[in-house]
Amino acid sequence: MKVFIMRHGEAVHYAATDEERALTPHGELCSLSVARACKQQGFSSFDHVLVSPYLRAQQTWNRISEVFTAKKVTVCDDITPYGQAEDVAEYIGALSNVESLESILLVSHLPLVGYLTAELVGDMNAPMFPTSGLVCVEYDVERRQGELLWHLHP
């Protein structure tokens, strides 16, 4: 299956809480640009989308859903900045088995996006993700092994 991992767009630096940081107009445009580039790669429809509950991730999904479609969208408390990559990888595997997923998109945060990519691929250091960065991993759920196919950034 293909696992797409996206970091939210650029957000304001200050808000009452980290969870409430909103996207900047530039962050919205960059996320939309990356979504369009992904669509040009031939990917614009996902079986399942997991979105962090943080405002900036929710706003990123709302903006890129202009380009992307999803059979199912779930707000996932496990993919906040301090989520555990191993747990998220297990959850993706379980979802894949239950829902027979061919594709899943996660809209999340640093540092989780880098650690999760490394967890799925194995034998690599966690890559740095710019805001609005997106990777595609071909992931074999049975073998628990993936291959980084490509990455996009604004």
Verbal overview:
With 154 residues, the protein is α/β, with parallel strands linked by helices. It has a single domain, classed as Phosphoglycerate mutase-like (Rossmann fold, 3-Layer(aba) Sandwich), CATH 3.40.50.1240. The protein is 33% helix and 25% strand. The protein is built from 4 helices and 8 strands; from the N terminus they run βαββαββαβαββ. A 6-stranded mixed sheet has the order 5-3-6-1-7-8. The longest helix is centred in the first third of the chain and has 16 residues, at 25-40. The radius of gyration is 14 Å and the shape is globular. The two termini are 25 Å apart.
**Into which percent range does the helicity of residues fall?**
25-40%
Write the H/E string, N to C. EHEEHEEHEHEE
What share of the residues does DSSP label as strand, in percent? 15-25%
- Give me the Rg, rounded: 14 Å
Overall structural class, as computed from helix and strand content, comes to alpha/beta
CATH class: Alpha Beta
| Distance linking N and C termini | 25 Å
CATH superfamily: Phosphoglycerate mutase-like
DSSP strand count: 8
The backbone outline, from C-alpha atoms, is: globular
The DSSP helix count reads 4
Oligomer: single chain
Q: How is the main sheet built?
A: 6 strands, mixed
State the low-pLDDT regions, or none: none
Report strand order across the widest sheet.
5-3-6-1-7-8
The CATH architecture would be 3-Layer(aba) Sandwich
CATH fold name: Rossmann fold
